[in-house]
Fold this protein.
Amino acid sequence: MKALMPHTFRDGETLCPERLNESFLHAQVDLDNVMDQRYTYSQARYNIRNINQSDPEPQRSFSLDAPLGGLQIIGVELIIYTNDLVPWTISAPQGAPYPAGSGLKGLTSATTSPTTPLEKSYAAMVGTAEAEVAGGVGLRIAVSAESASTIESGHIIVHFRSDRAVHASNYRRYTPLQLDCTSLDAKAPIEATLDDIDTSLTDSQTANQDMRVHAYSERSFPAGTRTWRIPATQRRFIALHSWLVASPGITAEWEVFDEAAASKYLTSNVPAGAANPPTYDSDSSVQTQTFDEPENDARDWVITLTVAGGTAELAYCVLYST
Amino acid sequence: MPVFTSPISPGELNTHLDAHTTPLSANAEDGKKHQHIEVETLSLTDTVDERFRVMDFTPQDDYELAMLGLETADSGATGNSVKLSLKQADGRTEYLLEKDWSVTAETIIGATHDRTAYTDVTGDRLTLKRGVPYRLEVENQSAPSVVDRVVGWVLLKSRRRLR
């Protein structure tokens, strides 16, 4: 791809249509090779340790509301360890008080039946249908047990696929014009073909929106602070969404700090709210990691959860980057 | 957009035909992205059940292993050691090239940050394969003692895919 065009045209030579066409085809191959690479995969993980079947349903649920289009869910895993040996189910129920959406089409639920407390129990919702969670279309994922049970340790893992092509107004493929001797009588067809190459390249550059999703969650988190580190890899953060399930008067604030630990970006301060429905807040200010130095902890960005006023039954956030 | 100032200039033609190659290469490079997966454990002792100190994950795409990182915080002054390992969740090793992929924090007092990069051209490299269940595991190698908090992470590098 980094090779230049196959022919160098020189003064005095006859402009041969075949050589020109070969150059246009070369450009098409280059562009197709890059534009065909559309999809980026990522996964978000929710900690569900200590979730109990007797907990109110909002404490057993997680919501998603993607900030950009082109994000698809391609599967959801449930991994649990429980002493109770009671089947647990993961599902994607829809409706109030959560964002209305199309749900996981064809991927409705899956159940796992633990056999021993110390061994992993696993279920996965996987299918051919994909659900888009874009443009305000939300999704809720919940776990429930057949009878009284507590998850000693476990996670929900949501697998995403991002399609960058939807972020160009016209993800247009360049189709080379094949010139003949007649068309060489005019420069207009050549100029039009070069314009097409430029347009396709611009589309590909505009579609540099390879979204990845990362989640942080805490259960029964007392008043206080906890931090996690995000290695510096020049990520471009585009949104931070956060939810809180807690009694009125309790607040949770999620913040993302840059490597200087002075500036504060992407603050999502969940207001005090009732336990049901969860309260929600978001910040869509775009911030970019300057450095590509994951080996240097001084360059890390830090995400911080601060809970005040009491214990937050469930606090979680979803961080989107491109 | 007019390209040629005179009927057809070879120089201008060459320039315009070559002009897209460099930005297109840069555009392809932009598709290389990082993401990380964490395992977090509080009050890690050498006897903590495995279920409380592991994180299993099954990639839905092939990833390049870029780095393993270990962050610890301990208010004690006993100088514990903690190890983070990348394993296969099924206990096998064939997708790990039968090598040890790990990073260790030693003599932990207060907060520590330890990282091992796997991007050196001449060093060990590993591709995590789609559909293979992997595991991040932290273990306290000092007995008997407790480390207040351990966060281990794996940094993965991905590329855009055809499907």
